Each structure stands twice: as C-alpha cells, then as structure tokens.
C-alpha cells in the first residue's frame, strides 16, 4: 500500500499520498498555517526514507559530508614534533622488520640462534637510524616546524629512551637475583658505543638531509 501522511484542517481530515505536493513553510509545516509572509516550498513525498533525505537536501541546499569538513581534515597537528618523530621512528622500525624478514627468508637468521638475531637487530637498527632522521625532519619541515634539532632529539629518544629504561630495570633485577639472563658488561659497552658512534651520527645526517630536502606538504584532494 502507498504510504500516507495524515493532515488536519479546520474543515476536514485528509491524506497525502506518494507523489503529492506537500507545502513546507519556513517556520511551520502543513496547510493549517499559511501566512503570506512565510515562504512556501512544495516537496513531493518520497517512496523511501533515503530518497526523502536526498530530496530535502536538494530542496534546502544542505551541504554535508566532504564539502562540510574538507577545510579541517588536513589541518596541521598541534604537536608537530611528536607527530613527525613518531612517523620517523615508525618508518625505521618498519624498515628493520623488512630486513629481518628478508634475512630469515634467505636463511641467514634462525629462530634457534638467539645471539645472531639479537646482533642483527642491533646492527640493522643502528644502520637505519638515518631513515628515521630523514623522515622525521623532512615531514617536520613540511608541517612548518622551526626547531628541527629538538625534533631530531625526540626522534632519537622516542624508541631508544623507553627501551633503555626497560633494559636497565630488567638488568638490575637480573643482577639482584644472580640470573644468567643478564648481559655481560662488555656487551653493554659495545651497544653503547654503537649507539654513540653509529646511530647518533647517522640520525643527524639524515635529519640534515631531510631539512634541506625542501619538500612541500601536498594534501590529497
């Protein structure tokens, strides 16, 4: 059966059917009130709810969806340095994961040889620190950031800082309980030297290259 909308007037009660013109006014709806000062718009009854919403949008000129929010979607974040540092560290970790998978596929690494896996993680992480510096610094400059040196420091400590604190806590617990899982002191010195002499310089070089890339932020349309 056709949908009907009941309306009341001073004289009779009637129904609007599909396809009938329904008078809509700026302040009140229906034929009961019809002052000359109000604007009248005739809208035909839709066959379904979705079509009715579409007809109302076309009748009243309502803008929703992408047209309504396109000016705010690509607004620069408030904490630009943290956002760029997270992007740089994430890119480095993603590259590290790809290299580990590739070495495992060619048979260079074995899950049963934990020492080789640990060594590969440390070396590859040190060598890919330039990727983190370049990505973070380049994107930070695209976001119109000014203090790129602080951004590099944040990029270098965003992942290594919490990792170092966790390692110190676990190492202290292992020493307190005389556990065999504690790393030798010589291994710790080697890791610190790698981070100081390899990771940090590559991070700075990548940051300088990213700052001088002069890439402009291009939002997708």
TrEMBL record:
The chain crosses the membrane at residues 82-109, 115-140, 152-177, 183-205. The keyword Transmembrane applies. Keywords: Endosome, Golgi apparatus, Membrane, Signal, Transmembrane, Transmembrane helix. InterPro entries: EMP70, MFS_trans_sf. It comes from the Eukaryota. It is a multi-pass membrane protein. The keyword Membrane applies. One of its GO terms (cellular component) is endosome membrane. It is found in: Endosome membrane; Golgi apparatus membrane. Pfam families: EMP70 (PF02990). Belongs to the nonaspanin (TM9SF) (TC 9.A.2) family. This is Transmembrane 9 superfamily member. It comes from Brassica napus (Rape). The gene is BnaA02g26120D.
């Amino acid at each position: 059966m056709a949908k009907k909308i009941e309306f009341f007037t001073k004289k009779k009660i009637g129904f609007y059917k599909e396809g009938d013109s329904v008078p809509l006014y700026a302040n009140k709806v229906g034929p009961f009130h019809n002052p000359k000062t109000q604007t009248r718009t005739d809208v035909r009854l839709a066959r379904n709810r979705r079509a009715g919403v579409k007809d109302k949008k076309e009748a009243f000129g309502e803008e929703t969806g992408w047209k309504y929010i396109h000016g705010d979607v690509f607004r620069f974040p408030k904490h630009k340095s943290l956002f760029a540092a997270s992007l740089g560290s994430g890119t480095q970790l993603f590259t590290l994961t790809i290299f580990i998978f590739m070495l495992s596929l060619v048979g260079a690494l074995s899950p049963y040889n934990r020492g080789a896996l640990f060594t590969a993680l440390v070396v590859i992480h040190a060598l890919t620190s330039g990727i983190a510096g370049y990505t973070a610094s380049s994107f930070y400059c695209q976001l119109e950031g000014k203090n790129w040196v602080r951004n590099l420091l944040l990029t270098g400590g965003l992942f290594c800082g919490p990792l170092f604190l966790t390692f110190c806590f676990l190492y202290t617990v292992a020493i307190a309980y005389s556990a065999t899982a504690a790393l030798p002191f010589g291994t710790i010195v080697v890791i610190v030297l790698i981070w100081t002499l390899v990771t940090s310089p590559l991070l700075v070089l990548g940051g300088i290259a990213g700052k001088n890339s002069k890439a402009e932020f291009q939002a997708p349309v």
